[in-house]
Amino acid sequence: MIQKFPICFEAHLKDKIGSISESKFHIFAYETLLNSLTQACDKFVFSLRHLYTPLDKKKLSSFILINPIVEIDNSEKVEIIEGLIKGSLNRFYNLTYKPEGFPQHNWVTSISEMLKYGEFIKQPEFTGYLPHLFSTELITNNFNLLKLLEATSCENLILDFSLEAYNSPKEQAGWNNAINDLVNCLSDYGSKSNSVKYALELYRNYQDNYSENQLFHYSIKALGENTVDTIAILQTLGEIVGSKKKARRILNLIPLTLSPEQPSFIKSLDATKNVQIFKGMQWDGWEKRIGKNLEKKLIKETVKSSGFLCSLDDGSLSFPILPSNLGQFNQSYNTNRTLPNPSESIENQNSGDLTLGKDSSLSKIFETQIPKVEHLKPLHHITTYQEVVGFFQAFSPGVSSSEIEFFTTSAEEIFFKHHHLITKDTYIVGLDDNKKPITSHWTEIPHRLIAGETGAGKTNFLHWIIFQFLYVNPQRKVYIADFKGTDFLYLQNLDINVEIIDTPEDSKELVEKIYAREYVDRLNLMKKYGVSSLKLLQEEGVDIDRSLWVIDEAADIADFSYKLRESIEKRLKEYARKGRTFGIHVLYCTQRPTTEVVTKQVTDQCGEKTVFRVTPDASQRILDDTVAGTIPKNVRGRAWLDGYAGRMFVNVPKMKKPEGSTIPIEDTLWHHFISK
Ligand SMILES: Nc1ncnc2c1ncn2[C@@H]1O[C@H](COP(=O)(O)OP(=O)(O)OP(=O)(O)O)[C@@H](O)[C@H]1O
């Protein structure tokens, strides 16, 4: 049976996920939510409802509504429902399908909606319109929605976020062209005036983001019991995502509000009920108030100066004098390009434009070519995913990341307290969030994958593992492929068995050497003594121990030769198969965990994964979970561990390493090797 109606889920954030406390994953939960939903967004409108009731101030009830904009049959509906319930959202939310839909809205008496306003700016060189961007990168602190909501007097309040895929190539080509032209014209003036520089920056931002990314119609609404609260909520949100010091003076984000006596009120309420985007809400400043007045005033002034686009308020043409610009303008403008049809929802389409007068011959020539304000109008209803995610980040009911206490420890401290945990079979990975030491086991897990963005703390972790590996027996053999070339040099000054190569070219030889020296030798010895494991060989009195092969930056190998990567994978598999008994171990480390570097074979063979901060996608690929993407960028040494000790965050200690004459070996843990 064909159906077309919103699918409703009630969604409650889970209290605890493993050892992560609630506060730490809220931001990420919203990002995942949005991500999951946008994947289906070419087919569905979705709306997130945060229904707030003062009875339960500690938690927001969220409703996720999906409105298929195409007709779907029952099986597709079941697929959507099951997909969402079982998908990655499940990690964060308890989702309950609500066949009866979203609760009634009969208490709503005020609706406020957020639009991206624009502003006319006036400079001697440039008079123009700046559509506003949501500057989500400005959110440095997570915003605590609960605090905001607690300040409201509404008993019920809905925050309604809806996105709908935007697919209007003609319109998009039009305003893209308009933006390109504006950028070209302004580039000449860019360094001369701060406002022009700022306008240029904004237009470039649009040029970059709005041509490249998937776009959405959006609607961000607050529905409440009184106007004061609905405005306050949105205004605060607007300040969070829209404020930028230098822009604050010239840009406004003021929510528009509807009350029940206005005809649009019912339409807007219905749109919310039916999970649709209400397109009737417009900033009347375009045609009236600020826009019109400012424009008239500015345009007159502009005519006297050398503004680049202007019309007189009597409708006649005054094409600006653009000695250098006009040529550039003409050149840059390809007459075949399309300009948009003015948006249907704009009532008075001509009155608010910076445009050419109708009857002029110049106007006729440029009629379809000059970018007009109306071409930029749709931008105040359109957004990118990146921009809108900011709003969700802002809705973090937990503690802000600045309040979350991440701790760092020193290797010296951990070693002092817990060195009994470092044995020939075990080593300390780090401390969990309760500051308990977490260990790993060489015999149980032969190989390890270590991933993390640059600067996340991978190399430090390698130093810490190598130290412990050698601490129990400095004669153990360590092979290091270090393509940065300098990180492990100090090991050569210690009386230990370390071999370092620093180019991917040398890796091939190393792979073979390890195979012949370690693998084949061990195999022969086992045959000779008639035993089946390293441990039994040792018991026979053979002087042999584990070996460690460290690959610091596997991406360099993958880039150098896929054949080499494959041969390493083959060895990984071989050693893993015999690893428990053979004692050959690999640390496969990368800052670029793409599918070319961390192949399925690698993830399959590496029984333990230590993943420092990576993107959510990379985390999903390696761990089948986005959790390592939640580690804040500025936190070093924190990783998600999936291995011998289970699945949890670990905080790896900072390891001091010898550095020339400034940090002598005696000042580091490595002095144990001198005395041994
Ligand atoms: N556990 C930690 N605690 C505190 N600081 C750390 C920790 N680990 C690393 N750091 C610091 O973070 C910086 C980067 O560390 P490191 O070189 O280990 O990162 P990386 O992930 O290997 O980076 P890259 O991939 O660029 O080599 C260094 O200054 C280091 O001192």
UniProtKB/TrEMBL annotation:
InterPro entries: FtsK/SpoIIIE/SftA, FtsK_dom, P-loop_NTPase. PROSITE patterns: FTSK. Residues 435-621 form the FtsK domain. ATP binds at residues 452-459. GO terms for molecular function: ATP binding; DNA binding. The keyword Iron does not apply. Keywords: ATP-binding, Nucleotide-binding. Pfam families: FtsK_SpoIIIE. PANTHER family: DNA TRANSLOCASE FTSK (PTHR22683:SF41), SPORULATION PROTEIN RELATED (PTHR22683). This is FtsK domain-containing protein. The lineage of its organism: Bacteria, Bacillati, Cyanobacteriota, Cyanophyceae, Spirulinales.
